[in-house]
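haha ok so turns out i had the wrong file open the whole time. this is the CORRECT one, sorry everyone. sequence first:
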Amino acid sequence: QVRLVESGGGLVQTGGSLRLSCVASGRPFSTYAMGWFRQAPGKEREFVSAISASGGRTVYADSVKGRFIISGDNVKNSIDLQMNGLKPEDTAVYYCASSYGPDATSKQLDYWYWGQGTQVTVSS
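then structure:
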């Protein structure tokens, strides 16, 4: 019954911005940490950012720190990823996921539920 649905992807030029959203059902953000991952063509899925249950702590990959901001909303049971200063290397399918526990983590195996993904394409 757990479902995670991403939205907000699209095509933007280098330097542009996008805001991704992920709405969860059957899995309270107040109890379980959530995160964002991405997968580019021909590459393995990689960690982008995570936020602890209820949003007390955030973690970012070095490649996006200073450009991306993760946030959460307990009432809406959702998380967002504000992406600024986008680069061609940010092009990927972005996935949101819900962790097994409350602490923000960058380990993919810690995430038990995943969304379907949303495409982000940054033109050069």
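The chain has a mean pLDDT of 97.
again sry for the mixup
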